[in-house]
Amino acid sequence: MAVTDAGDAPDLVPGDGLCAHSGAACSLRAAIQEANALGGAHTIHFAIATGGPGVAALIAPTAPLPAVRTPITIDGYTQPGSSVNTAAVGNNAVINVRIDGKNIGVGASGLAFYPGSSNSALRGVAITGFNAHGVFLLGHPGPAGDSPKNVTIAGNFIGTDGSGTGDDTSGLLVNGMSGIHIRDYAHDNVVGGLTPADRNLIVASSSGAGISVDGVYNTQIRNNYIGTNRSGSSRRNTLVGVEIAGPYTVISSNVVGAIETGISIHGGGVGLVMQGNLIGVGTTGISIADATSSHGIHIHSIDTNMLRNNQIGGTSIGEGNTIANWGGNGVRIERSTTTGTQPRYHGILGNSIHGNGGLGIELIDTATGQGTQPGDAAPPTVNGGQRYPVITGATSSAAGTLVSYGFSGAPNGHYRIEVFSNAACDPSSYGEGQTFLGSADIVTGGVMYTGDVLLPAVPAGSHLTMTATRDFNDAEDSLETSEFSQCFAVPTGPGNGGPGNGGAATPVPALDHWGLALLSALLGAMGLRARRRSR
Question: Which of 159, 326, 164, 309 is nearest to 249 (CA)?
Answer without folding.
Answer: 309
